[in-house]
Amino acid sequence: MSTTTIHFVRHGKVYNPDHLLYERLPDFHLSDRGRRMAEATGAYIAADPAMNRSVAIFSSPLDRTRETAGAILEALNPVREARGEQPLELATDERIIEARNEFRGKRIGHGEGALWRNGNWKLITNLYKPSWGETYRQIAARVGDFADEKVREFPGEHIIVVSHESPIFSYRHMLETGHPEHWMFLRHTALASITSITYSNETGRMVSIAYVDPAAEVE
């Protein structure tokens, strides 16, 4: 059976000394530790005989995902070049961007906090939907649209996609359970982790899901 595998990578740790919810705001970059996380994941991908055969790499257009993808390419492209293959170049796609969130730019749980003040409690009436921005169903739908397109575009291949926790897990949860709604505190998507989803090229349906956390020990 011919299959396509998409390796969904979450970005590394972000430099955020003011503890803001940065959402889609510009100029939030990887911290020093986040860079090391991305490098560890890049080294893991470059050493894996299936992942290092990936034929394309995509990321969200945000700084932290593009920087994570850049670290992956720094590790992966020398392996490709040693095999006589052309280096990969990063492409971005809005469908795999961070979830829209009405708390953007505010502090959550630090200092004055934003969660319970100034009427913000009205935004958290439903933790399962959620009620403070883009719903999990909307998030999973746009990621699913992206994945469906890439499975058709790259039959029999592996590709790498650098995205964010909520898009990756909402989509995964939809595939595993039939619905994307979930408790955000129970997500299984560590920083710089890889969620690999394999699809049948005949049916387009998910065949298997694997998860690995190459940066777990990075300090």
From TrEMBL:
CDD domains (UniProt xref): HP_PGM_like
GO molecular function: phosphatase activity
Example of a GO cellular component annotation carried by this entry: cytoplasm
SUPFAM superfamilies linked: Phosphoglycerate mutase-like
InterPro entries named among the record's database cross-references: His_Pase_superF_clade-1 (IPR013078), His_PPase_superfam (IPR029033), PGM_Phosphatase (IPR050275)
Annotated PANTHER family: BROAD-SPECIFICITY PHOSPHATASE YOR283W-RELATED (PTHR48100), PHOSPHOGLYCERATE MUTASE (PTHR48100:SF51)
Protein name: Phosphoglycerate mutase
Species annotation: Bifidobacterium erythrocebi
